[in-house]
Structures are given as C-alpha cells and as structure tokens.
Amino acid sequence: MDMISHILQLDKEAEERINSALEQSERKKQEALEQQKQIEQQARESAERTKEQIRAETDKSIEAQTLRVRTKQRTSIKALDDAFEKEHESWENSIFEEIVSVC
C-alpha cells in the first residue's frame, strides 16, 4: 500500500508541475503578446514621426525652390520690361518701315 501511495503522490506532483508549467506558459505567451503590441505601437509612432519629418523637409524644400523660381521669373520679366521700354519705339518703327516698304 505504501508503494501505491507513493505512486499516487508522484502522479499528483507531476500533474501539479504540468499545470504550473501550462500556467507559466500561458503567462509568458500573454507577456509576449503584450510586448508585440507595444513594439508594433512604437513602430507605428516612429513611422508617423519619420513621415511627418520627411513631409516637413519636403515642404521646406518646395518652398525654397518655389521662391527661387519666382525670383528668377521676376528677374526675367523685369529684363523683358526693360528691353521693351528701351527698344519698343525702334521695333515699332522697324515694323512700320517693313509694312510701308511692302506696300
């Protein structure tokens, strides 16, 4: 009888160890899932920050390029206006002479 009691006791201890291991496994699984969620959230936040930083840099670059183009455009228009003011009478006379000489 003592041997049977010992075997039953060993079986009970083995079952308790298995249950404890299963509980510990489930806890570890839940901890891993929580860590995964945290890592995913951190990755999303990091990606969003990076996206916003790139957007800000791109906007700044576009603004700088736009300013350069507008400045160049104003300079070109001013040069054309100056040329027109300086030469328009000469051009008008030249066109008039061409028209008159054809007729």
SSE arrangement:
Layout: H1 2-102
Could you characterize what this model shows?
- This protein has one helix spanning 2-102.
- By secondary structure, the protein is mostly helical.
- The mean pLDDT is 94.
Q: Secondary-structure element order, as H and E?
A: H
Query: How far apart, in Å, are the first and last alpha carbons?
Result: 140 Å
- The outline comes out as rod-shaped
Summarize the amount of helix as a percent range. over 70%
Number of helices: 1
Q: Structural class of the helices, strands and pairings?
A: mainly alpha
- State which percent range the strand residues make up: under 5%
- Tell me the Rg in angstroms: 43 Å
Biggest sheet, open or closed, and with what strands and sense? none
Weakly predicted, low-confidence segments: none
Concise structural overview:
It contains 1 helix and no strands.
Which descriptors apply to this entry?
103 residues; mainly alpha; rod-shaped; 1 helix
